[in-house]
Each structure stands twice: as structure tokens, then as C-alpha cells.
Amino acid sequence: MSSLQRCLPWLILLLVLRGGGGGTAVAAAAARKVPAIIVFGDSSVDTGNNNFIPTIARSNFWPYGLDFADGHPTGRFSNGRLATDFISEAFGLPASIPAYLDTTLTIDDLAAGVSFASASTGLDNATAGILSVITMAEQLDYFREYKLRLKLAKGDARGEEIIREALYIWSIGTNDFIENYYNLPERRMQYTAAEYEAYLLGLAESSIRAVHALGGRKMDFTGLTPMGCLPAERMGNRGDPGQCNEEYNAVARSFNAKLQQAVVPKLNKELPGLHLVYADTYDVLDAVVRKPSDYGFENAERGCCGTGMFEAGYFCSLSTSLLCTNPDKYVFFDAIHPTERMYNMLADKVMNTTLHVFL
User: Fold this and answer.
1) Can you name the CATH fold of 37-358?
2) Which residues does UniProt call coiled coil (predicted)?
3) Backbone phi, then psi, for 37, in 5-degree steps?
4) S-S: 30 plus which of 42, 92, 174, 331, CB 3.0-4.6 Å?
5) Residue ranges of domains in the chain
6) Other C-beta atoms within 10 Å of 240: how many?
7) Contact yes or no for 244/233 (Cβ under 8 A)
8) How far apart are CA 334 and CA 316, in angstroms?
9) How confident is the model at residue 320 (pLDDT cuts 50, 70, 90)?
10) Please, what is the end-to-end C-alpha distance for the chain in angstroms?
């Protein structure tokens, strides 16, 4: 099957959603099928929760957000929206997903979508501890609280319906390897890479089971991207400076294969009513990084911010004189996180995976 054939359902939906009255009808139908997008994960899907906790893992300052609405930095680690924002819009829901810890928002503001994600976290609690961010266990606790608030505001029946019909998205795991396992000695002393991978997959399975027990049924677990090709990892690649760290990429592929071939079918079989899909974003980012010009990008080796080789978070705000003139030409906005344009492409891939299951 050609890439065009694989993407055709999503392209058709996107065209309809952007059309006239018919698009409005389809968007409304999609929203009825998926009344909310509920997100767990790390900086790839954190829409601002870290703004409200004592951590340095933040991005609520310029140049982050320079292409978001009126140029307002929200806490998203990008120049604009994230993949989950585009997915929400495609389902006929709000064009941006709010952060749960934003105290200016009411439960009505969060009823159509919410992110519990926290930048720099991981499936492993030890990863979250490195920069004192929100653990996966705490994200699940916030979800339990959210469910109670939703039922109080909307009534038991409607609250349960939103929880049951919502689409749950996980995007997490990269930090466990690049911030924790390969950067600090403790986990490497306890586990081989394969053993640590198995440990993380067990934690992922437990998180999915927890959300299912609370009523969630439609779930998407996004695989790891080629983390060895992040600009920061290229810079830190001692074996082949400036090139992708292929050891890290092999670990990502192995994790993804086991997630897709073992965890997903096992849970779909064991958990009543569960519709869990695996979304492979590895291939699309890998293809772009290898041949950026084929996709309209000019730079896939450095981020738009600063030198593009190591800056992320506060370091981006310290080197704004070096900011690139057009982020759309860059795959990465900082040395770790994609640009809005790249996130949009990743959203297309996820939507193509989920359409036949959830619409």
C-alpha cells in the first residue's frame, strides 16, 4: 500500500473538516464519537502543567510559543501547537488542549479535553525525580480527581459517558532512556538496556490498566521517536559526533516493537471493551530527519533556538539573538523538541492510525 493510500482517510477527513457546512457536520459527529481528548505523558504533550509546579523544566517564556495564537508562551515546548492540539481540532474539539493544573480554568473548560502531562517525566518515577516533575502515578491521581469533578459538574451519567467515550493518548518513555538510563548510573547498575525496557513496558501496561479500571476504553499509546537523532543526542554522540546515535534508535525500535506486538494485543484481549492502538511516529520522524528536503525542511540536525545543538528550556531564552528566522524550515525548535510544523505531521500519522478505530 502506498503512503498516499495509507494517508487518504485522514486527508479526506481533514479536507472535510476544513470545508463549509458539511465539514461542521462531520466535526460535530466526530466530537460525539470522541467527546474529549485526555492526555498523559511528557514534554511532547505537556501544555503547561509544569508552569504550576516548582521545577526548572519549563517553557512558559519567549521564544517558546512565538507562533501560538498571539505569540503567547503557554508552557508547550515548541514554537506553536503540539500534535495532540492538532488531533483535538481534527476531532471537532478545541484547537488546543488545556493543562489540568491551570488554576484559571474550570471543569467546564476541561470537559472537552485535558492534559495531565509533565515535561521531563517518564514511566519510571525515578525519571520524574531528576527535575522534580509530575510522576505517572500523580498524573493518574489527577485523572481520578478530574473524573470526580466531571461527574459533579455534568452529572453521573454524562460524566461517565465522557470518560468512556474519550480518546486517551500517551506520549512518554523517551526521558526514561535519555535523561535517566543513559545519563545516570543507578538504573544501569540495576538493569541491562533490555531489562529496563521490559520494566518500562510493565509500567506502561499498569498505567493503561489503571485508566481502563476508571472507565477509559479508547486509547492510543504513541511509540518512541528516533531519540538518537535529537540534536542534543547528536551533539552528545561520542562514538560518531554530529551523527544520530544509532544505539539509542535501536532501543526505541525495540521498545516500539514490543509495545505493538506484545502489550497492545495482550491488553485488548484481556480488558473488556478496550480499544487500544499503537501509533508509530518513529518512521515519519526518521524519514524527515534522514531526508528533510523531501518534506520541505532545510535543517534537521539543529534546533531553531540558539545554536540548536544543546539549548532547551531556559537556555533558549538566554540565546534569543540566535533564533532562526523561519521555524517552519526546521524539524526541531530546540535541541530536543519538534517545531509546530513537525508536530502537525506527527499528528497526521497518529490520526491515520486511530481513524478506523474511533470514528
Assistant:
1) Rossmann fold (3.40.50)
2) none
3) -110, 120
4) 92
5) 37-358
6) 10
7) yes
8) 7
9) confident
10) 22
Q: Compute CA distances 226 → 43, 105, 151, 283, whole Å.
A: 16, 35, 40, 8
Question: Per-residue DSSP letters for 145-168?
Answer: HHHHHHHHHH-HHHHHHHHHHPEE
Provide the pLDDT for residue 19. 42
Residues in the chain: 359
Report yes or no: 46 and 119 within 8 Å, Cβ to Cβ: yes
Tell me if residue 97 falls in helix, strand or coil.
Answer: coil
Sheet holding 167-171, edge to edge: 113-115, 37-41, 167-171, 218-222, 275-279
Instruction: State the catalytic residues.
Output: 43, 334, 337
Residues 123, 193 contacting (CB under 8 angstroms): no
Does residue 281 register a pLDDT over 50?
Answer: yes
Which residues are bridge partners to 332 per DSSP?
303, 338
With 0-12 / 13-18 / 19 or more C-beta atoms within 10 angstroms meaning exposed / middle / buried, residue 271 is middle
Helix axes 3-17, 340-358, angle to 10 degrees: 90
Count H helices and E strands in the chain, helices first: 16, 7
Consecutive H or E run containing 41: strand 37-41
DSSP symbol at 243: S
What confidence score (pLDDT) does residue 1 get? 38
Measure the CA–CA gap between 176 and 197, rounded to whole angstroms. Answer: 9
Q: What is the SS3 assignment for 278?
A: strand
